[in-house]
Amino acid sequence: MSLVTEVVVPRYGIAWYPWAVQYFFLIALSYSSLWVAAPGIILGRQRWLATSRLALLACVSTTLVAPVALLADLHQPLRFWHFYAHPTPWSWMSLGSFLLPLHLVATVLLAWLAWRPALKARAQADDGWFSRIAGWIAWGDWQVSRRVMILAGLAALATSVGMMVYTGAEVAIVKGRPLWHTAWLPFMFVATGIIGVCGLILLLNRVSGIRSADTNRQMLAILVGACVAAGFIALTWLLDGANAVYGSVAAALDSIDQSAAWRSTAVEGGIAGVLLAVLAFMARRGPARRKLFGWALGLLALHVAWMFRWVVLMNVQTVARNSAGFHDYHVAFGSYGLTGIIGIFGLWLTALLVIELFVPWRDASLDPERDAPADTSAAPAPSASVSPATQGVRHG
What we know:
Strand content: under 5%
Membrane topology: Multi-pass membrane protein
Mean pLDDT: 83
Number of strands: 0
Radius of gyration: 26 Å
Protein name: Polysulfide reductase NrfD
Distance between the termini: 116 Å
Keywords: Cell membrane, Membrane, Transmembrane, Transmembrane helix
Shape: globular
InterPro entries: Electron_transfer_protein, NrfD-like
Transmembrane segments: 20-42, 54-72, 92-115, 148-167, 187-207, 219-239, 259-280, 292-313, 333-355
Largest sheet: none
Order of helices and strands: HHHHHHHHHHHHH
């Protein structure tokens, strides 16, 4: 006699929607762009000035928009206050709820200090409401020392490191998903985040009209290094799972071993990464190539960074946890799908346009002491050859 035991397993819907992809993408661009801006802001390197201006613009815009995507992913955005009313220090998500506001405030404060001299200069120009608003944003005529700027930059860098650790650990700590529960994932988040921010700065360098040759050269050099690092992490990740019998990486590879869709995704991702690295290496070897292909490489780099997060956060959820096989997921048109993705992108463009309208970020020297007004007490005395009558006419 044979006995058949029927097991009924409920099918659960996905927990994280494309809002999560947008958040992890934008926050990676946020902390990575702050690192790229650091040489010009903190170290004061003049050859890095144009790059730091663009990186600071990218950092502020992405930092402002990222929390919106996170709130939308809560499904009930107004419940965010629960994180503060009921803190759980052992949860990475709870820690992130405190780190994110600190990072937002530190980043905006740093940008405000860096842009204040240019805002004060615009406030003195006859530019109607734009000058008036620039004066309001500058908030007085007091001077900021270089030391204060460095301290603000170091504080922002500290919060950016916290954001890097929290966003990586928040996903890697989930034991129920072998494809997430690995130490390699946080490092891959960082590498692809740097790839994405290099692409974003290359793109902003083109569309903003700055078109700095130094920026193209610097970003392509970092892009090549980030692609090599990402390739090394991916190869080590694969070898770890292929050579191990137990462990999360081995379980992850076993869970997708029979999926043709996952194999095609891996091949497409590998081709895109290798193509990006090769083209970036070739472009950085000549100024003409950097100028011609910089914007196209920027788009490809953003695609690689965004698609990696889509595969990790969305495709992984299609792997059944309590049964065999895969669940189908199709991007809906509503706010939890395509409309939400386009909406967040539009909100980021809005943030860029608002900054472009009211902040003369192109004129910022990122050194407040260099923009200090000249000391009029040391002005030379009037020439003795000028007659008193002439002096009277000159001074009205």
